[in-house]
Amino acid sequence: MLQSRRQFLSGIAPLVLPSRVFGRDGAVAPSDRVTVAMIGMGRQARQVNIVQFFGMPEVQVVAVCDVDGWRLENAKKQVDAAYARKTSSGTYRGCHAYKDFREVIANQSIDAVMISTPDHWHVPISMEALKAGKDVSCEKPLTRSIGEGRQLSDLVTKQERVFRTDSEFRSLKNFYDAVELVRNGRIGKLKVVHTGIPFDEVTCPPQPEMPVPPELDYVEWQGPAPRAPYTEKRVHGPHSYERGGWMRHLYYCDGMISNWGYHLNDIAQWGNGTDLTGPVEIEGHGEWPPATNFWNVPVTFEIHYRYANGVRLNFALAYKSQDAYVKFVGEEGWIYAEYEKPLVAEPASLLRSETKESEIHFPFKSDKQDFIDAVRTRGQTLEGAEVGHRTTSLCLLGHIAILLGKRLEWDPVTERFTNSEEANSWVKKRILDPRRS
Which end of the chain is more exposed for a tag (fewer CB within 10 A), N or C? Predict the structure, then answer.
């Protein structure tokens, strides 16, 4: 593999490079770098994911891929400009651009892929990449159904590949600190966890069919989703990096229930020590927009879970709520972690507590560094496929409970409902539009 990668890099490198790129002065030689391809170059990939890789000397982004030609062209320019700034000549044209992810996966010089596509493409692309021997980092939420999450996690194990569920919340210091304090008993026995996510406006009137923009391969964009006429609010605006309408449509995404919901519920499960299993009981209620509304994800909801260890999790999206938080409540106190805000606790003194060497510690690093370190060492990531599957499943279990309107009992070992065959029929299916079911 190193030989083919060396040949690949030698074919795309600029003519004049500083000595550090050849491994001198403590730098990483090109032949020892992890070559990464970016699949999906929308807002998250452009503004967050690829930028982190640019700052890692042990990584070389060698390819970008998108079915939107305008975004693809911009992505290639972004990569070339980033690496040009590191050359003495000020020029670089080494990034390959692909419209078809299959061509990326077929390139044996690429070690790893970062998947930042809409949700409905996460599992199909991940599985093809794994089968081709690539290591994979994939945006959360991993899946649209519980069944496909099980298939993905099992394939990672079978192929012996490195996998990272891409969520940065385990790398945010306040959430990380909250989990270590809870896991080390600072609030006593954990009793209840509350998670809340921001409100997202989903009001959208019926949309007309529109001509497909010439730069977009709309058939490929739809992929495994049901076929539907093109309209801008279904995909994303032409020549734009705004949040795409697909995030509010059940053909492609479960909405905030698994979007922001993944982030906060992953922290909840991590703090509870249940991120490799799941709850045993689920109840929920929620509201979808009117049938005339084009977007169809839940407007608001409240879901209650119970775990085998007795801990309860309450997960809610309320009207106009802008908070993204996790609150751990124990027998001796509580800890409240909110996005981009300092920790709050009762008693406040527990925030001054230092964990001992003999206590539970987790590695603290960025999500991208966690992935690349595991690729280089062939170790495990902090948020592997099984963790991603279990947290995504938690969100989907809540969605199913809302759909059916009944208390559900769940066996996290067999991943089957024990009190409802109707619910079991949704384990391998995606919820597409409950308003018309």
Answer: C
| CA distances from residue 50 to 56, 257, 368, 385, 435 in whole angstroms, order as listed | 10, 26, 10, 21, 38
Angle between helices 260-272 and 385-404 (to 10 degrees): 110
Q: Give the other-Cβ count within 10 Å of 12's Cβ.
A: 16
Going by their DSSP bridges, the two strands 333-338 and 325-330 should be labelled as antiparallel
- Per-residue CA distances from 420 to 87, 118, 319, 404, 412 (Å): 62, 31, 30, 10, 15
- Domain 2-168 CATH class label: alpha beta
Report the distance separating Cα 437 and Cα 405, nearest Å. Answer: 14
The residues, any chain, with a CB within 8 Å of residue 349's CB and separated by 6 or more, are none
Domain covering 169-354+385-437 in this structure, CATH number: 3.30.360.10
What pLDDT digit, counting tens, does each position of 391-434 carry?
999 999 999 999 999 999 999 999 999 999 999 999 999 999 99
Sequence spans of domains, the chain: 2-168, 169-354+385-437
d(CA 358, CA 330): 22
Do the domains 169-354+385-437 and 2-168 match in fold?
A: no
